[in-house]
Structures are given as C-alpha cells and as structure tokens.
Amino acid sequence: MNPWIVGVVGLIIGIVGISIGSMIGISIKKTDFVLSVLFGLSGGFMMFIVSFHLFPEAFYLGGTLTVITGVTIGILLIIILEVLFEKIQSFIPMKSSIIIGLSIAIHSIPEGLALGSSITTASDFSIVLAMALLMHNIPEGIVLSVPLSMNKVKSWKIILLSTLIGIPTGIGAYLGASLGSLSNSIIPISLAIAGGIMLYIVCDELIPTGKTLHKGRASSIATIIGFILGIIVYF
Fold it and tell me: What is the mean pLDDT of residues 26-43?
C-alpha cells in the first residue's frame, strides 16, 4: 500500500481518538466513574492486543531477541519521557496539560510505526491494531482536556490542540510503511516497541488511574470487558 495512504490512515486514527477523548473530557460533568470505566476498558483492550497480537507477531517475524530489545526500548523511551516532562513541569507548573500533550505526541510515533509496518503486511492484524490505538487515544484525550476545560480554556482551542497532538501517529505510520517496505526487520522491532510502550502505559497509568478515580469494582469489570472486547473484535 502507498505509504502516503497509510500515513493518512494513521493521521485519522490519531486525530479521531484524541479528539473523541477531548470532547468527552469537555462535556462530562461528573468524571470519576466515567473516567474509571473508560480507563478500564482501554486498559483491558490494550492488554489483549499486546499479549495476543503485538508480541506474538513480533516474535514470529523477528524472534525472541528482537521482542526483548523492542520492549526494552519502548519502556525506556516512555520512562525517559516521563522523567523529562516531570522535571520541565516543576519549572512550568501552569503548562502541565501542554506537557502531557507533548508526551502523548512523542510516544505516538513508535505506535504509528507499528501500525504502518503492520499495514504493509496486508494482514487482518493491522485492523485490530488500528482499533487498539484508537481506543488507547481516547483516555489520553480525556486526560489532556479535563484540566484545560477546568481552567476555562475554550473548547475549540482544546480540540485544535488535540488535532495537532494526533499528527505524530500519521507521521509514524508513514515512516513505518516506508521503512517496512525496505526492510522486514523494521516491522517486528516497531511492533515490539509499541507493545512495550502500551504495556507500560496499561500497568503504570490506565489500570492504576482507573482504580484511583473510582474505588468500586467498575474499573476492574471494565478492564475484563475490554479484554473480552478484544477477543470479539479479533474473531
């Protein structure tokens, strides 16, 4: 498939997912329960994708060493970004949402790489991964928009920011399709890196945040439903 078309697909997925999350963050009044459910659903769905698609596909194409290397790179990348932005945030506390947005934008690039690489294989897996990225972007859009909305930032500005933050997914998808057509080694390492990033985000952010927002069982049940939803979507 033409890399430009793949890039447009990635761009749409990035923009739509984050924008939907932003619109939810702008519109909802009582956020705790809804956010808890959304984080749980996203976490469960992503866990299924990582465990049964990203890692197995990367292992099949590249082997154990490639998977371990990619996962390590992905986790280190997101940890470095977190540490970096935490330090910046201590100096610019009023721009925390912008910093969150930058973090989302940067880690969207390897996710786009994985999407672009998988599309070049023309397998059904690319559709599942695209849905996973779309669902993954929704809670990130919510996290981005809620503080801005509470600080009376105009809705159109929040949506505009969400649109800009979704662009790197398209860039990553274009690069993944271009590089994937040149070397098959790009595909498994991209899948493994994206899997490492998603795994860390699920374990460190989505599931813990969902439980923190609402102390009941809603988040846990939603996580299980999200996992089952992955099975339904795949089959």
Answer: 76
